[in-house]
Structures are given as C-alpha cells and as structure tokens.
Design brief:
Elements: E1 2-6, H1 9-15, E2 22-26, E3 44-53, E4 62-69, E5 74-76, H2 79-89, E6 92-98, H3 106-116, E7 120-122, H4 125-132, E8 138-147, H5 168-177, H6 179-205, H7 208-212, E9 222-223
Parallel strand pairs: 1-2, 1-3, 3-8, 4-6, 6-7
Antiparallel strand pairs: 3-7, 4-5, 4-8, 5-9
Helix pairs in contact: 1-6, 5-6
C-alpha cells in the first residue's frame, strides 16, 4: 500500500502515526499530481488529508470518496477498496468535488453542493485521480472534515493559491479581520489533524491483499 498526502500539516499528522507503508508527500492544490513516483502494478494507493463539508457533515467526520468531480471530469474510485475502508473506519461514503481555492462562505458551499451533487470539497482530488487513472493502481481517498457549513471561514480564498502557495500576509489579514472565525478555524483544523493521525493506522492495517480480493464491480479508476 502507498499513502499519498499533501505536504505540510497533513503529512506531519500521518507520519505521527509511524506508518509502515510508503508515504508520498505531494504539493497541495493543483500541483499535487506533479512528480508522483512509479507504482507497482495493482498497488493500492490511498490519498489521505482534510476536506471541507458542503452540507450535512461535521468537523472530525471521516469520509471515503465514491467519486470526485470538477468542471473537467468525474472519476469513480475503486469500489472494493472504498467499501473495505468505509467498513473498517466506520466512515460515510460520499461524492466529492475539487475546487481551485479554499471555500470560505456558506453561499459557495451550497452552490458547489448543488452544482456537483457533492457532499465535500478538496483542492487535490481530481488532479490526483487524473494522474493515477492510467497507472494501473487501485485508488481510494479518505479525508477528515476540517470545516463545515455551520459558519463562514476567514477570507482565505485569496491567501492559499490553486497551486497550494501560501500568502502569509493575506492569512494574517484575514485572521485579524475575523478573529472569532479564525480561532474556530484553527481549533477545527487541529481537531481534524488529530483525527487524521488516529485513523492512519486503521487505513494502513487494511491488507492490500484483502482489497485486491474485494469485489471488483465498478472498481477501476477512470473518468466518466
């Protein structure tokens, strides 16, 4: 099994679990698919990280993706690995969408949920799915909800670029302008990162041989 996780706080949270599997750290956002290594034929690749809930979820929830979509394509993920992970984690199986910025307002969450019939949003999902679709791997994505539809976030949409670049000045400005929202955001991200550390060993303990023998119905990763 190979774990793929965005570089930074998410990767640090996974590594705190002392994983025995190979861990590949990738850039956040649209650059996540750059520089991926080679994979063994029929390797099981699990993407771990954080996501935002568009509706119906709470901070700390564990979700396993059924599909991930953006304006360009929709990708179905491996059904066998998905179901095995959802069972072992007690996680909800959801549809996800990928955005090119941090989604901060309740209005945009609602719009994305309606547009893509999605439950959660991230910034890497479709980029990784597209890059791995032709690699012959069994792909799954497991995320922890770090922000939900209970309130707006600080105005971070211009502070974190589509390529994962961070504008520290804009982050500081957003936090100063919305201190209560900033405090809640930081608290929730820390909680989600702790949950990521907790679930990483459960993901890794799942035998890739068990996954390989799971029902292959609709299991291939590919664009709809």
């Amino acid at each position: 099994m190979t774990i793929v996780v965005p570089r930074g706080a998410e990767a640090a949270a996974v590594r705190r679990a002392r994983p025995s599997s190979r861990v590949i750290e990738v850039p956040a956002g649209a650059r996540a698919a750059t520089g991926l290594p080679t994979f063994e034929d029929d390797d099981t690749v699990v993407v771990l990280g954080l996501c935002g809930a568009l509706h119906g979820g709470s901070v700390g929830d564990v979700v396993v993706y059924r599909r991930v979509v953006d304006d360009g394509a929709s990708y179905q993920l491996d059904a066998g690995v998905r179901d095995a992970l959802a069972s072992s984690l007690g996680a909800n199986v959801v549809a996800a969408c990928t955005a090119n910025h941090v989604v901060t307002t309740l209005a945009e969450r609602s719009a994305l949920a309606s547009r893509y019939n999605a439950t959660v949003v991230d910034m890497e999902g479709t980029h990784l799915a597209a890059a791995l679709a032709t690699r012959g791997v069994r792909l799954a994505m497991v995320r922890i909800v770090s922000d939900d539809d209970s309130c707006d976030l600080p105005a971070l949409e211009r502070a974190i670029g589509a390529d994962g670049s961070i504008d520290v000045v804009r982050i500081a400005t957003a936090f100063v302008r919305s201190p209560r929202a900033a405090y809640a955001f930081i608290r929730n991200v820390r909680h989600a990162l702790r949950r990521l550390t907790e679930i990483a060993p459960v993901v890794i303990r799942g035998s890739p041989f068990d996954f390989a023998q799971a029902d292959d119905g609709g299991s291939s990763t590919g664009s709809e």
